Amino acid sequence: MLADSAFDPEGFLRDLRDWTPDVAAQIAAEENIQLTPAHWEIVDLLREYYLQFDSSPAMRPLVKWVAQRLGPDKGKSIYLLSLFPGSPAKLGSKIAGLPKPDNCL
Fold first, then answer.
1. What is the pLDDT of residues 48-80, one digit of tens each?
2. What is the pTM of this model?
């Protein structure tokens, strides 16, 4: 488990290199989310997106990215909301150890 100082005031990692699957589980637990294989599938895609584009996706690009990678059934806002309530792009990025997407409040 990482110390509180490893996170910014919103709970995002200060240093992306600190991320591990255990840290993801720690962040998810703070958000009352129990990570399932479906969550991990999206977390992995978020990390892949970040590696390719050097930014965390906002909601619309995330939906598009998921649809391209996992098909139209999973590339829907409603599906992502079922996994990451509220703001899937923001919450998913937080759990994936990535910076907050630019246009997320």
1. 999 999 999 999 999 999 999 999 999 999 999
2. 0.93
The DSSP 8-state label assigned to residue 72 in this structure reads T
The two structure tokens encoding residue 82: 């079922």
List, in order, residues 6 or more apart from 64 with CB less than 8 Å away. Answer: 75
For residues 42 and 39, give the distance between their C-alpha atoms in angstroms, rounded to a whole number: 5
Rounded Cα distance between 32 and 62, Å, is: 22
Give the tokens for residue 75: 């590339």
The catalytically annotated residue of 2, 23, 58, 104 is 104
**CB-based contact 59:77 (threshold 8 Å):** yes
Distance CA 47, CA 79 (A): 19
Q: Domain spanning 4-95 has what CATH number?
A: 1.10.10.370
Catalytic, 104? Answer: yes
How far apart, in whole angstroms, are the C-alpha atoms of residue 87 and residue 79? 12
